[in-house]
Amino acid sequence: MPRWRKTTRSANFFYQRLGKNQFSDAETRESIDRLQQTVDCVEAALGADGRPWLVGDRLTIADVCLMPIIDQMANLGLQSMWEEAHPNVTGWYDRFAARDAFARTYYRGTRLTEIFDSAG
Prior knowledge:
Layout: H1 3-20, H2 25-47, H3 61-75, H4 87-97, H5 100-105, H6 112-119
Helix pairs in contact: 2-4
C-alpha cells in the first residue's frame, strides 16, 4: 500500500473518532508523547549547530510545515513542553512569531480556542 494511502486512512480514522467519541486517556497520552518527541527532535536539530531555522540560516518549507503544530500547542497551553527545557525551540517560535506573516496568519479570532470559547 502506498504511504500516502496509509496517511489518508489514519486521517480518516482521526476525523471519524473526533466527531463520535472523546479520545481515551491512552490515546491522549500517546498524542502528548508524540508531540513531545517532535519538540525534542526540533530542539536537537536547532541545537546541533546553533542555526536559527530547521535547515540553516533561512526560513524554509520545513519551518513553515512545522509551525502550525507548534503554534497550536502554544494555543492549547502546551508551551511548557518546550519553554524551559528546550531554549532552541523557544527561540525558533519567537523568531517565527515576530514575522509579519505570522501576525497576518494568526490574527485575533482565528485560533480554535477563540472560536470554541466564543461558541459557548
